[in-house]
Amino acid sequence: MRSSALIFLATLAQSAYGAPANATNDFSSKCTALASSLNIPHGNVSSSALVSAGSTLQFPNSDPSCGRSSQSVSVNMCRVTLTIATSNRSSIAMEAWLPANWTGRFLSTGNGGLGGCIQYEDLDYAASLGFATVGTNNGHNGMTGESFLNNADVVEDYAYRALHTGVVVGKKISASFYGAEHSKSYYLGCSTGGRQGMKEAQTFPEDFDGIVAGAPAMAFNNLTSWSSHMFPLNGLPGTSTFIPLEMWPVIAQDIMNQCDGNDGLVDGILESPDLCEYNPEGLTCGVAINGTNMSGNTTNCLTPTQVQTLKSIYSPLLDANGDLVYPRLQPGAERTGAPQTYFMGQRFGAADWFAYAIFNDPNWDPLSLTPADYVLSSSMNRFNIETFEGDLSAFQKKGGKLLHYHGLADGVISSENSPRYYQHVSDTMGLASAELDEFYRYFTVSGMAHCAGGPGAANIGNMARNSASLDPQENVLMRMVEWVENGSAPESITGTAFVDGNPESGVAFKRRHCKWPARNQYQGNGDTDNEDDWECV
Q: Of 191, 415, 418, 492, which is the active-site residue?
C-alpha cells in the first residue's frame, strides 16, 4: 500500500510539471549520456540509466547481511552508480537517484549500525518526493566490522568520510545532470544515520541547510561500550546472572505498573520514561512486597542475583572511577526489542568495533570486556567518531536547521542520551532553549521503538514505511523543508498509530510529540485517543 501511494504521489508531481513526450525522451537521453560526461576525481562511474516508476531493481551482488536484494521504484528517475577511491586501500560505493520531478532540492541518506549498506528504501523515498538523492555504502560492504581490521582508512570512511564524500560528489552529479545547482540541501537519517547527521552539523556545517537526525548513535565510543557490556552483564543462558527471556514480559508489566500513570494516563505508553525510577525488588522470589508473598512463585520471579542484573540494566554505566560512560536503558525499551537485541546471551553487533577497530583481533572475546576497555576506546576516539561536540556555532551562523528526534521506547540506543547532548550544546554555546530554538530543536517521540515501530504514535515520516502523511505537521522531512524554506519552525510533531500497526486498518490515534524540554501530559477526562487532550508542559 505504502509503495503504491508513493508511486501515485510521484505521478501527480510529474503531472504537475506537465512533462510532454519529447521532454521524457530528453530526460532519458540526458541520463544515458551522463555517465560518460562525468569527471569524478578518483571515481569510476559504472552506469547511468533511466528507471521507470513501478519497476523493481535487483541487487544480486548486495551483501546478504544488508537484507536489500531488491527495491521497488516509485518515480521515473536517472540512476547513477559509481565507486570512489578514498585512499589506496579504501573506497566507497555510491548511487545518485535523480528524479524526473526534481524540485531543485538535494538530499543525502545515511546508514545503520556498523553497516556498509546503501539504504535503497530511503533513496526511493526522497527521490519520490522530488529530491536529487544520494547514498553510500559507508566505505565497506555488509553489516559487520570485519573490514575495519588493520585498515584505518576504512574506519575513517565509516567515521565521517564516506558520507561527506558522497555529499560533495552527489551535488556535482546533480548539477551536471539538471544543468543547475540545487536550491536547498537536506539530510535524513536515523541511528548511525542520526550520528552521521550530527557529525555533519558539527564538522561539515556547509553541507546541509536542513538536517533531520533520529535516535543518533552519538557518544559513539561510549555507546559501543554500553551496548557491548550488556552481554557480560547478563551472561550466558544458564548462568546465575542471566535473566530468562520469558521473564521480560513480566518485567515489562512491572515497569508499567510502577510508571505508566506518571503522564496522567495508563495507556501502555511512557511519555517521560526518564522520570521512571523503576524498582524491581517486587519480582524477587520469596520476598513479601506490599503484603504479597511470592515465595511460591518460581516461574514469574527472579533470584536476588538476577534482580541485581536488572538493576544494573536500568542504571547508568560507570567506569572504574565512578564517571559516567553512558546513560541507562530507559524503562519501556523492554517492550520494543531490547531483550531480543541485548539479553539473548549472545554478542551484539557493536562488539565488532572492539574486535576490529580497537583491538584489531578477530578472536577477541566480548565476554572479556572490562571498564578499562571503555576508557581505552573513548581515549582512542578514532577519527573523532565520538560525535559529541557541543559547539554548533558554525552551523548556526550558516543558517542551518537541525531537527533531532528520539523514540522514547528505543530498544537499541538509550533515549536518555539525546537530552544529554542537547544540554551539552546549551552549556557549550551558552544558549537557553529559547535561543537554541532558532536552529536546533529536539523532539521526544513517545512509544517509538528504534527509528520506527512501537506502541506509540510513531509514524512521523522519517522513512517511507513510517510515513502516514506528507502534511508537514505529520512528516519530519517535509517539516524541515517548511522550516528551511519558509521559516516555519516546528513546535510539535504529530505522530500516527495505526490499528494493529497496519495502515490498511485505519488510524488508531494521533499524538503531538513535544519539543524538549516540554513533556506530554494527559489533561483529558474521556477520549484517551484525542490528541487535543494532551498538552506539552
A: 191
Distance of CA 87 to the CA centre of its chain: 28
Total number of residues shown for the chain: 537
The answer to whether residue 182 is catalytic is no
Q: Which of 262, 241, 405, 256 is nearest to 313 (CA)?
A: 241
Beta bridge partners of 108: 134, 187
Q: Which of 196, 88, 56, 89 is nearest to 134 (CA)?
A: 196
> Active site includes 410?
yes
Chain Cα centroid distance, residue 189: 6
- The catalytic residue among 267, 450, 467, 492 is 450
Quick check: pTM over 0.85? yes
- Grid cell for residue 359: 583491538
C-alpha cell at 175: 548539477
**E strands of 451-514, at which residues?**
492-498, 507-514
Does the annotation count 450 as an active-site position? yes
Give, rounded to a whole angstrom, the gap between the first and last alpha carbons of the chain. 37
Give the pLDDT of residue 529.
87
Q: What is the pLDDT of residues 200-219, one digit of tens each?
A: 999 999 999 999 999 999 99
Measuring CA to CA, which residue among 379, 370, 354, 381 is closest to residue 320?
A: 370
Backbone angles phi, psi at 181, to 5 degrees: -70, 155
Which residues, 6+ apart, have CB-to-CB distance to 185 below 8 Å?
105, 106, 107, 108, 167, 171, 207, 208, 209, 210
